[in-house]
């Protein structure tokens, strides 16, 4: 899978500076931004904890948001191949469920999504160094698919440190940071601080999302530029 550059080039991996950086909102908005030119774009949440039971099976709110933003709309099992019940770290949720998470099903789901779309936006869990499972880091998935990485920076006090540390960690793991998106966690966050992040990160800013709880990601896509 990692050698299939024609497939991998169609994807991008979204990570964040922390758990509540706004990755899902930014990922869904980025899906819509990519769709503006008429491309077929789908979202993916390979591993999700904090799922609820439904008649169709376990469902996660983040994965459902990505599914709703997608066109075409994939079946849920492809968007979120590993759905875990407990709202905690995926490692702990998998242990509680007696589930062993491996790379192969994630790669298979990605391949199916890539076959139906022009682009695949893959959202990770928590921050970059939060494992997907015991013995499985997010960098393992990124390397296997050879995906560029976009960093969502939660704009709040301390974000400069978190952004710089994350950029260094991605590089240390052999990842390719392609850009970053600002997600305004604290309303009224000063522009001067955002400018510091722009200067500190070695990649372009793809846009800054305003503080807009409950907003439609499609309406927020105008704040983003899609490379």
UniProtKB/TrEMBL annotation:
Assigned GO CC terms: cytosol
Binding-site positions, Mg(2+): 24, 62, 123
Binding site for substrate: 49
Enzymatic reactions: (7R,8S)-7,8-diammoniononanoate + CO2 + ATP = (4R,5S)-dethiobiotin + ADP + phosphate + 3 H(+)
Any one GO molecular-function label of the UniProt entry: dethiobiotin synthase activity
List of residues binding ATP: 20-25, 62, 123-126, 183-184
Pathway assigned to this chain's UniProt record: Cofactor biosynthesis; biotin biosynthesis; biotin from 7,8-diaminononanoate: step 1/2
Active site: 45
Pfam family, one: AAA_26
Keywords: ATP-binding, Biotin biosynthesis, Cytoplasm, Ligase, Magnesium, Metal-binding, Nucleotide-binding
GO terms under biological process: biotin biosynthetic process
Cell location: Cytoplasm
Main localization of the protein described in the UniProt heading: cytoplasm
EC number: 6.3.3.3
EC primary class: ligase
Cofactor dependency: Mg(2+)
Family of the protein in this entry: Belongs to the dethiobiotin synthetase family.
Function: Catalyzes a mechanistically unusual reaction, the ATP-dependent insertion of CO2 between the N7 and N8 nitrogen atoms of 7,8-diaminopelargonic acid (DAPA, also called 7,8-diammoniononanoate) to form a ureido ring.
Assembly and interaction partners: Homodimer.
Protein name per Swiss-Prot or TrEMBL: ATP-dependent dethiobiotin synthetase BioD
Gene from which the chain derives: bioD
